[in-house]
Amino acid sequence: MKFAAFLAAVSTATLAAEDWPKFLGPHANATSDETGLLKSFPESGPKIIWKADLEGGFGGAAVSGDEVFLGDRVEKEKDMLICLDLKNGKEKWRYESPSEGEPSFPGSRSVPTVEDDAVYFLGTFGEVFRINRKTQKADWKIKLSDRYPDATAPHWGYAQCTLIVGDTIIVMPFGNDTGIAGWDKKTGKEIWKSDGIGNTHSSPVLMNFGGKEQVVLLTTGDHGGIHSYDPKTGDKLWSTKIYENRIPITIPIQIDENRIFASGGYDAGSKMISVKKSGDDYKVTELWTTKKGTQVHPPLLIDNHLYFLANENSNHKSSTRRKKGGLTCYTLDGEELWNTGDDPFMGRGASLYADGKLIIQDGENGILRLVTPSPSGFKLLAKANVFGTDPESRKDLKYWSPLALSDGKLILRGQDKMICLDLKD
């Protein structure tokens, strides 16, 4: 299967074209086909359609039709799946499940995965849910440590997003003898599981090399690295330690039929990696590397260039190192063309690409920016302080949640609040 055809195939669903039904949207790469979006903001900023108060956390939104789904959490008490009305932000229903304890950086984590009949999400302590959209009750819920006694939560809890491939849901128990697993999405019955592969805060992603559909995952630990599995059988297709990260959060992205770009924080930098089918095996080699990486959110591939916030723990508090961070642009051959440094820095915020524009939420203070992606330099179209925070403060408010865009409505989370903006021109 040609790569472009594969992307079209994995992006096709029964949901409407403007939906944002899962982590990173309809194409699973933080891009949208929507057009007719604002090119600038009025002095008062874009129109705020609604606001919703939440518990503190990092869980982003998914959108299906006129419904918004998000995970939330009452600290040391319960996980929640909340359904809001896209038009006005009013709560339509919620599902709650008791959950004791709390990791550091308390709160919700992942983005739900939405299909016509069900919503799937993962709780902070490893309970996987399939919630029926009609009954608003659990068709099934399974705690990873109950099914896999060796399952061990990553350092900051389970933060991955579930991945649906056909009739299979991919989950990540993580233990000495258990890596990832494939379950029947309707029943929760195990179909396959892998051996131990360390753990991660990064989510599994669907790729295609040599015409073979595969689930790719970045992990850490003794068995860490990048691993690839057949989503139908769980057979390992290839594995490499060419890129490793001690705390993987960012997902690797597929560039084309033969390349992966892996990036992350914690001074692990980034690498471009070649993956080529060779008979029944795969040959995996390093093409180039850079010391810069993006700690939380994946790079965006636009017109054969990579754009990402080169911001992480080690440059977040250093005025000298901040000047080397910010939004950066790379060629696919590894040349850095420019970066914004500390003006603006934008922290570990999320971004997406739509209608020829980068839409970036500042991870430190929530400021929203529209940027024209260009190899020639940073081109700011507009910015607005949509959360009303202090833009001069250097305190990181941890506005790190993924964005969602549906029918011209942009949904942003700022820890204990969610807002929906009208970006239609």
> How far apart, in Å, are the first and last alpha carbons?
38 Å
Q: Major β-sheet, in short?
A: 5 strands, mixed
Class by SSE composition: mainly beta
Binned, the helix content reads: under 10%
Radius of gyration equals 20 Å
Report the mean per-residue pLDDT as an integer. 94
- Which regions have little confidence, pLDDT < 50, spanning 5+ residues? 8-17
Number of strands: 33
The general outline is globular
Q: Strand order of the main beta sheet, please?
A: 1-27-28-29-30
Strand content: 35-45%
Number of helices: 4
Structural commentary:
It is a single chain. This protein has 425 residues and is mostly beta strands. The chain has helices spanning 3-11, 144-147, 313-316, 319-322; strands spanning 31-32, 47-53, 61-64, 67-74, 78-85, 91-98, 113-114, 118-122, 127-132, 138-143, 163-165, 168-171, 181-184, 190-193, 205-209, 212-219, 225-229, 236-240, 253-256, 259-263, 270-278, 281-290, 300-302, 305-309, 327-331, 336-339, 351-354, 357-361, 368-372, 379-384, 404-406, 409-413, 417-422. It has a five-stranded mixed β-sheet with strand order 1-27-28-29-30, with no helix packed on it. A four-stranded antiparallel β-sheet has the order 2-33-32-31, with no helix packed on it. It is globular and about 55 Å long. The model is unreliable at 8-17 (pLDDT under 50).
Features:
425 residues; mainly beta; five-stranded mixed β-sheet; four-stranded antiparallel β-sheet; 5% helix
